[in-house]
Structure formats: structure tokens, C-alpha cells
Amino acid sequence: MNPRPKPTLTRRLLSYLITLVVLGFVVAVNRPMMAAANEAYREFTINRQSYKEKYGHWSRLHVPDSFRVNAIHAALLHTGKVLIIAGSGNNREAFEAGTFRTVLFDPATDKFTEVPTPTDVFCAGHTFLGNGNVLVAGGTKSYERLEKDITHAAGVMKLKNESPNGGPRTFRKGTILLSGDNTRYRTRADVTLQPAKAMKHGDQTMIHASEVEVWVDAEKAGDGPIVRKPAQYKVDGLTGDDQRNIYGLADKITREKQEYGGDKTAYEFDPRTERYVRVGDMVKHRWYPTLTEMPDGNVLAVSGLDEFGRLLPGDNERYLVDRRRWEATPGLKRQFPTYPAFHIMDDGRLFYSGSNSGYGSDKIGRTPGIWDLTNNSFTTTPGLRNPRMTETSSSVLLPPAQEQKVMIFGGGAIGESPVSTARTDIIDLNAAKPAYRPGPDLPKPVRYLNAVILPDDGVFTTGGSSGYRGGPYQGDARSDLFNSQIYRPRANRFEKAADSTVGRNYHSEAILLPDGRVITLGSDPLYDETGRNPGSFEKRIEVYSPPYLFKKGDRPVISSGPAEVSHGSVIHFPTPDAGRAVAARLIRPSAVTHVLDVDQRSVALPLLRRPHGVTLTFPKRDGVMPSGWYMLFLVDDRGVPSVGRWVRVR
Ligand SMILES: [Cu+2]
After folding, report:
1. How much distance in Å is there from the Cα of 546 to the middle of ligand 1?
2. Both 176 and 163 in a single domain?
3. Is residue 410 a contact partner of residue 424, using CB atoms and an 8 Å limit?
4. Which Pfam families match (predicted)?
5. What is the pLDDT of residue 5?
6. Which of 106, 103, 99, 105 is nearest to 115 (CA)?
7. ipTM beyond 0.90?
8. Is residue 495 exposed (0-12), middle (13-18) or buried (19+ Cβ within 10 Å)?
């Protein structure tokens, strides 16, 4: 028999190709089945009791269509409801239509309700006041305009008046300003210019010109009207003395990007009436400010962009709670990037963790430190690793607040940088020379990590993305992170928690609910799944139930107790579970936006077991326990907390 001829190269290649095609076909046909099998196995695993006991469990909340809003801000009210604020929700059409949204969600009944929203509070600052109202201040006056959309040169025109006579002068929108070569620029809004001030210095009278600022746009499109140098402009139509006394000054008129402009409107949101109550306007317009309640109960507003989208260079201001109005604090001039994160220390000073979000100088106000408001001194604190990656990081006053330890999580380099970090660092503010020390790394580099203090002293951390706004990261088009983990301060390590199913990056929030669950909302990805088209705002809401909710046996119960307590008081709370109660925690509810939550803190209450209850000692110091509403949790020997009981601290 002749040996079989060796197949030619062509034949061999052909047979490989056929095998490949057949294999590919088999895989393609079975892929949905394999994916379904994987999914079924995952479902089976995460729903097992033993898995839930160890890692907790996520569930999706049903949100009726009419209440699907862009959750930019969220706060837990002492009525137990979650305040969800969108304003215009980072949606230009909504802004231009004047459609501003706020909804309330009641986790006890799963019901949503609508709240009328008078102005655009998108990207305002907020914090709780001692009476439980949420102070909401600033917001959006104008949307950004990108360079590619700017057809007409524009700039900020300072109108000046050097005459003390003639009273206030109003210049209508559309007023023309003329450059030296008679190029025409139109004002964008009505403005009123006060007369100059005449001031006596000894026997001399000095005139201080008044001024008001307004956007102007070139009448003609294109680059012709661009002016790059400071220059003086004539107001069209003025003659004689008026023309000499009243004029315009502009640093530049260009086709550069115009940032979002801040608003100066302020409200107290009243949880009882569920309405915004207008209070005095802020001194400055602010977009992305931080509001911090101070130990005296007043509120400090720091940073933000002004109405022309310029970073406020350290002009901070104070809200006087009793008078419901704002006043400038020239004695507290200090510049920070937008949404700087402050934590009130036990002695009333503010610790700036270095976390911030959005905009700011790359040099000024980026270093963490302790700010003494009594003399405006600022002592920087050393030791933070990756100090250039604090933007979009988060920071938490670790539980319990008495230990005065702050932890910073992740963050990215300034602006739309592709760089982010998995670093956590911890600082002990009780130390003689406080300095950040290395904490355990997060599983992955992350921006926008939401961090929530749990009643069992764990810090639940979830979501975020490695790339800017969930966008490209090291070759992947999308970079949302689904891993969650609980930081255990005692053990100084992260424990794995169940994966979430919804990505949460920029403009997302997470909040502890009174029943011990955590609600997560929002996310504003730059791109869609393909990484090619613009992303859409994430409107789904997820709720995480921590492992303690799956332990066998009943949760401890606080049967009753006073609704109000004062600093330094010792109070008996009846409970049938006194025998197994090991800890009591007073948790101040979250008010969060842009991973900034200066309100959240957990205060330890020393506990004495009695036959039919526990006796709790409340701290004396405002800096440990600022006045306001808190949730009181009793925690048993298995680490299982009671449902939070609302207590007002006076
Ligand atoms: Cu924002």
C-alpha cells in the first residue's frame, strides 16, 4: 500500500480554518447559555444565607418613573426620609426650562414625594443646623459654555462710576460698550451701578469709585473682537461728565471656555413642612462651596466659583443661624479648592483632610492641615502619600469621633487626569504632632469612593471609578468599580463586601438609613457603555444590607427614651436587651454631595448596664458632638445594631 501522501500546506491550513470556524460557531451558539449559567450561579451564591451573613446583600429599589431624578445631593432628615436634590441635575435643557427637582424618599414606606424647588440648587453647599433644618446655599446661576460652542468673544466687564452724584444708574441688558477702535460688546444682564463714595480723610475728601461686574459678548462673531489685554471701554450713549465718570474695564475678552457660574440664594429646608424656606442671600455667589456647622451653631461657607465661574480667592462667609442671614468673614480669608472637606475637631478647630472636588489652583490650598478659626492660623499636617491625588478623594472622621482619627480614601490628580490612587492614610489628631500614616490600600485605584459609617464601627466603602467620571482607565473604555469593602478601624483592614450592581462615579451618594441599611444613588458618567457616546445620568437606586442584618436572632431594641438630650447628660434608656448590649453609638446623619460629607460622624456613648435598660453618658464638648439630630444605636455582643432612634442634642 502506498503511504498516504502528506497533506499539502494549503490543505492543512484549510482544515485548521474549518476547525476554527466550527469551534467559533459552537461557542457563539452556546454563549448566551454559558452566560445565563454563570449568572444563575452568581444569583444562587449571593442569595445564600451564609453569603449574606458574611458579605451582606444588595437589592434594587423600585423608583416610579416620575421620581427618577438626577441625585446630585442627598441627606437623611430626622423624619427618617431621604432628601434627594437634583436642581437642574447637570442637564442644560432642564436649566434653561427652569425645571428644578427635589424629591423625598421614605425608606419606611418606600414612597416618594415631590418637593417644589424654587431656584437651581444644583451644586449648592449644605449642612444640618442644630434644629434639624438643612441649610442649602449657593447653586447654579449659569451653565458652562465650552470653547467649541463659543462663537462670540466674551468677558467680564467691570463698570465703574467715579461720580458721587446722580444716584444709582441702571444699565439694561444689551447696553453697548465700545473699545478704543469702536468694536461693540453687549451686556448680558441688567445691572445697577451705585454712585462713588465720597470719604473724608482729615480735611481731604477722597472719591472711591463704585463698580459692578457683568458678562459682555461681542456683537460680531469670530476672532476679530478678541482683546487679550486689560483695556478701558466707553459706555455707548453717555456724553459729557457721564462719559468721563462712567466707563468699563475688562481684563480680557476671548473665546475661552466659560465655567459654571455660582448663585447666592440660600434656603433652610424644613423636614417638618418639607419645604424650602428662603433665607438671606449669601454675600458671594457660590458654586461648589463647602458648608460646615461650627461649634457655636453658626455655619461657615468656604470656597466655590463666583457668578462668573472664577474661584473665590479665599472670601469665606458665615451664616448667623439666629438671624438667618450671611455676613462676610474678612478675618477668615483663606483659599481652598472647591468642596474642601472639613472635619470639626473636639477643640473646635477644623481639620482639612485635603479632599476636595472640582476646581482650584494646583498650588494653593491643597495641603491638609488644621485651621484655627479663632486666629485664622493654618498648620499643615505632613505624611500624606500621593499628596497630588486628593481631588475626588473622600475622607471620614473614623468611629468613634472621640478618637479624632481621620481617614482619606483614594482620589485622583487634578482635573481630568487619568491618574488615581488606591491609597488610604490615617491621621490621629490627638497626637502631639498629627501626621498622616499609611492605611491599608483599597483593592483598586479609585476616585469618588463613597464611605459610610456603620453603627458597628465599620466604614462601608463602595462604588467610585478608577478613571475620571467612570471613563477610560489603562486601556478600558469604562472604569466603574463594583467592589465594596468594610474598613474595620480596630483591625486596621478592609473586609470584602458584596459587589454592587450599579456603577457610581461623579455625582453619586451613599447614606446610612435609620434601619441600618445603606442607600446609594446617582452617578454621572462621561461616556456610555461603548465609551464613544456621551453618558446618561444613573437614576437607579440600590440599597445595601450589611452582614449584621443577616445574623440569626432578634436585633436589640431601644424601648423608649427622651427625644432631647443635652451635652454632658447621663440618661437611662429602657431596653429588654441590656444584658447583651455592649456599645451605644450616636450617629449624625449624612448630608452628601461630590463625595463630600462633613456632617457624618459617630459618637461613642459610655454605657452602664442596668436591670431594665442602659445608662448612657453624653459627651460635654460641642466639637465631639455638635448640636443637632442624631440616630442612637444600641449594639449587641454579636455586633448587631438596633434600629436608630432619633435624638436631638442641644
Ligand atoms: Cu458637580
Report:
1. 29
2. yes
3. yes
4. GlxA, Glyoxal_oxid_N, GO-like_E_set
5. 57
6. 103
7. yes
8. middle
In the chain, the number of structural domains is: 4
C-alpha 235/C-alpha 191 separation (Å) is: 13
Distance 594 CA to ligand 1 centre (A): 6
Cα dist from 456 to 189, 399, 618, 634, 639, whole Å = 54, 9, 18, 9, 6
- Tell me how many degrees the CA angle 591-596-598 measures, rounded to the nearest 5: 60
CA 192–ligand 1 middle distance (angstroms): 31
For the chain (length 650 residues), average pLDDT per consecutive 10?
Answer: 60 78 73 81 90 97 96 98 97 95 97 97 97 97 94 97 94 96 96 93 89 96 96 95 95 95 98 98 98 92 97 97 97 97 96 95 95 97 97 98 98 94 98 98 98 98 96 92 97 98 97 98 92 92 98 96 96 96 98 96 97 96 95 97 97
* Residue 507 CA, ligand 1 centroid: distance in Å: 6
Which of 523, 550, 577 is the last residue in one of the domains?
A: 550
Within this chain, do residues 455 and 533 fall inside the same structural domain, yes or no?
yes
User: 604 alpha carbon to ligand 1 midpoint, in Å?
Assistant: 33
71 vs 74: CA distance, rounded Å:
7
- The burial of 220, by beta-carbon neighbours within 10 Å (0-12 exposed, 13-18 middle, 19 or more buried), is given as middle
Same domain, 266 and 231: no
Give residue 407 CA to ligand 1 midpoint distance, Å: 23
Q: What is the phi/psi pair of residue 332, to 5°?
A: -115, 40
CB–CB of 646/514 below 8 Å? yes
Closest CA to 197 of 242, 164, 167, 168: 164
The answer to the question of residue 1 being in a domain is: no
| Domain co-membership, 132 together with 162 | no
287 CA → ligand 1 middle, Å:
9
CA of 76 to the centre of ligand 1 (A): 20
Output the domain CATH number for residue 390. 2.130.10.80
Any domain includes 199: yes
**What per-residue confidence (pLDDT) applies to 530?**
83
pLDDT of amino acid 32:
72
| CATH label of the domain that carries residue 185 | 2.40.30
Q: What is the pLDDT of residue 1?
A: 44
Q: Are 361 and 444 in the same domain?
A: yes
Asked if residue 522 belongs to a domain, the reply is yes
Segment 550-600, tens digit of pLDDT: 999 999 999 999 999 999 999 999 999 999 999 999 999 999 999 999 999
Q: Please tell me the distance between residue 208's alpha carbon and the centre of ligand 1 in angstroms.
A: 38
Please give the residue range of the domain that contains residue 396.
Answer: 52-144+259-550
Residue 601 belongs to domain with CATH number:
2.60.40.10
Domain C-terminal end among 250, 268, 297: 250
> How much distance in Å is there from the Cα of 100 to the middle of ligand 1?
15
Domain annotation covers residue 556 = no
Based on the fold, state whether residues 273 and 244 are members of the same structural domain: no
Residue type, 179: S
One domain, residues 182 and 326: no
* Ligand 1 centroid distance, CA of 123 (Å): 6
d(CA 58, CA 47) in angstroms, rounded, equals: 10
Are 267 and 276 within 8 A, CB to CB?
yes
**Ligand 1 mean position to 362 CA, how many Å?**
18
**Same domain as 159, residue 30:** no
Which ranges in 48-195 belong to alpha helices (H)? 49-55, 92-97
* Cα 308 to middle of ligand 1, angstroms: 16
